[in-house]
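<goal> How does this chain fold?
<sample>
Here is the protein in question

***
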Amino acid sequence: MKAKVAAVIGIIFTIVFLILGLTSLLSWTAAGPLAGASIGITSIIVTITLALERKEEPTEQKQLKAKKEKRLIIDETVLVEDYISYNFDVNSNEKVIGVIASRGYFNIYILTPRNLTKFENDEEFTPEYARENVLKTKINFKPNKPSSYYCVIENTEDEDINVKALLYIQRNSD
């Protein structure tokens, strides 16, 4: 975009200098070199701008690689009466990212299988990740070790709630 603006400005200056030369308001000895200089300067600006824009834009290969490095865990809206759980495995150099939202309050826990059993038995449990009494939360969980985990969404309301959950496993760039 910046390159296009620079090119248009350069073309406008070139046309102005040529018109001034044609109308004899500026001598041809001045108009010619000024028009040529404006074309040269414009081409330098456009070249530099395009080079900088290319560096900033990710290549198609990087975009495809980023898509491949993301695995979907959950992408659904679900009615939660008490709680719902989703199982997933996280390898080294991976993290869980996403968003969970509802119009009713809920708790979100990421639990090991052992702590899921404690949760289900109404025993004291230790979550690996927790957000409590929220309407919406962003998830960014990097586990301490590769393992199998459960994402538990617990309804804290008296009535059933609809929860929109979108979670991915993403490779860390570390």
Observations:
- The longest strand covers residues 94-111.
- The beta strands are 70-80, 83-90, 94-111, 129-141, 147-155, 161-171.
- The chain is about 40% helix and 40% strand.
